[in-house]
Amino acid sequence: MTDSRYLKRTIVKEEIASSYLGEKRSLRIYLPPGYNEVISYPVVYCQDGEEFFNFGRIATTANRLILEEDVDPFIIVGVEVDTSIRTAEYSPEGDRFEAYTSCFTEEIIPFVERNYPVRRTAQERILAGDSLGGSVSLHIAMKNRTLFSKIISLSGAYYEPSLKLIAAEQDLSYLSLYMIIGLQEDKFTNSFGTYNFVELNREAKKLLEERGAKVEYFEKDGQHLWGFWQKELPEALMYFLK
């Protein structure tokens, strides 16, 4: 049975107006137990913010880690996305990719840092994402090495355009990644075709390590579903926050 303390979560909903996207973007912000505005906190920025909270149960997991596992309190910022244009924003070939990544670094982060006591160094910011959310997190970090150095990649969608961008880099020694891929993701079918996500993640890992990145990498039984990622989130968060 879930401890009732884990369910007493403080989640604030915010909305920002983005000049890059030409629209408003919603955020979900988790505040840890004992939240105090005079204390600064590490921060986890999640792509697919609504899914991380609803399907990944990240707020409940965070409460448990803080209350039971002696993890220092941290803030979570879930950046929501319209699924109908998700690929356009998260894929390097998408027509909204540059606008989204600029919104993320130049509008969302400054808004959070103006309004919440989050820490402001690359070592204290973590990017997290599933599938294309994992790969766009890496691309944001590669484009902004002074902002980010830590990435949680849950079954990252490292298609050919992403692999080419990684290969084009010379030095990624500032990056530290926690990568997990499900062994049953070897024939994942979406609207673009059927892909072997296991091989794509292995190739991404190889390219990253060749360029000096530190990669904590796991292959486990699992499918391309939140049921798999939800179970893996606690270890992924503890890797960077414990």
From TrEMBL:
InterPro entries: AB_hydrolase_fold (IPR029058), Esterase-like (IPR000801), Mycobacterial_A85_antigen (IPR050583). It comes from the Bacteria. Pfam families: Esterase (PF00756). This is Enterochelin esterase. SUPFAM superfamilies: alpha/beta-Hydrolases (SSF53474).
